[in-house]
């Protein structure tokens, strides 16, 4: 490298400076010498080497004491390079006839320390120009330059917004520079979490280089411009009994810690932290809620709805009624929104709501009226009606001859609740029949059956008794030799024909009586007109009528 056409050696601070003598060694060389030039041009000799005696001498120059080394080829080395070594050195070769000189320029470089942002502000405030910090880089040579960056981009000076000043100082003992760049800055809200850094640009032996500081982030303070109220709840909807927390927040930094909360009906406001808690809320808590800063500025509001669901079942609990009675049942719902109603009887869903104009045994059971607000999680109500239908025992007895003609089946059909106890006895003897069969008791009804083969006519008694009453019914049963059929579905075709014949006979008798009445009317009318003539005709007609009656009676007896 050349400086102003001269040979230049670049050295690193603290390293060894090596300067070759760039002259050709002439014949007849006597000795070689090195000197440096003072700023005023006067020389200072520092090293001598004889070509004949091969000995080296170093001049008494304090700043180079124990630092110099001169080789056989007259290359000069200087240990522990200093800034003061940056000067013009000259190599001299001397013969008897001539003195040759060749100058060398020494340049010394020192890399600065990594820059640091010192004296950082605790926080920044918007609309205020304040000292952000100082970027300090020490021990540089030559002096470097400092540049500020914001989020990786160069921060240019702007009047009253970005003010940068650079100060450079030199250590007199070392000649090294320290650069200090201060930054005054007026931030905005957007500068929150912004990264500020600084970079030092310096020159080294190989050219220009940079070193960057660690980034610094500042808390930016700005006033609240808006407040917001919100409802904190575990569910999106609120129902009676829930706990509610109202939270008020401001968008300032730092955020405000105290607010005024306004609940429905309260115009003054309740001073609290940023939360206000209401426990076990009721439906009257529905309304508009507000919050503001403590100076009653920047207010926000929200509407809160507390959902409720009431169910009234009439009657409810355990209800006992008598069969045939009427029982009005109503399930009344009151709710904050439309609710669905479901009726369940004995764990089975009903298609319609119950209505009892005349209670029957099958109406007894456990009824549940259940209502739900589908849009509100967990809001469900139900009430129960346990309906008991009581009735005194009712008895109907039937008999039939079995198809084998060897026995008869007597059935006692019983209704009543509580379930009646049934007993069979034989009238007259009073003996009790224990061999009976009972059907399943369903909807207040069941039947008790006995099978007998009586050799003579007998009267059977069925006794049914519960807590309400004792009912007794008897039935005459013919001997086994006489068939009996009380149930139409068990009759054969011959019996059906007999029934039809009896119906025809009854119709005939009725028609005959009507004709007789008509004839009697005619006779009476003729009697009024002609008593004698009428008398003869009437006697004859009456005689005919009597004869007809006798014939009809005989016919009836024979058919019977």
UniProtKB/TrEMBL annotation:
Membrane topology: Single-pass type I membrane protein
Compartments, record wording: Cell membrane; Cell projection, Axon; Cell projection, Dendrite
Glycoprotein listed as a keyword: yes
InterPro entries: CD80_C2-set, Ig-like_dom, Ig-like_dom_sf, Ig-like_fold, Ig_sub, Ig_V-set, Surface_Rcpt/Adhesion_Mol
GO biological process: adaptive immune response; cell adhesion
Domain Ig-like: 103-212, 223-305, 324-386, 393-473
GO cellular component: axon; dendrite; plasma membrane
TM spans (from-to): 505-527
UniProt cross-references to CDD domains, sorted A to Z: Ig, IgC1
Keywords assigned: Adaptive immunity, Cell adhesion, Cell membrane, Cell projection, Disulfide bond, Glycoprotein, Immunity, Immunoglobulin domain, Membrane, Repeat, Transmembrane, Transmembrane helix
Broad class of the protein's primary localization: membrane
One Pfam family cited in the UniProt record for this chain: Ig_3
PANTHER family: CD166 ANTIGEN, CELL SURFACE GLYCOPROTEIN MUC18-RELATED
Protein name: CD166 antigen
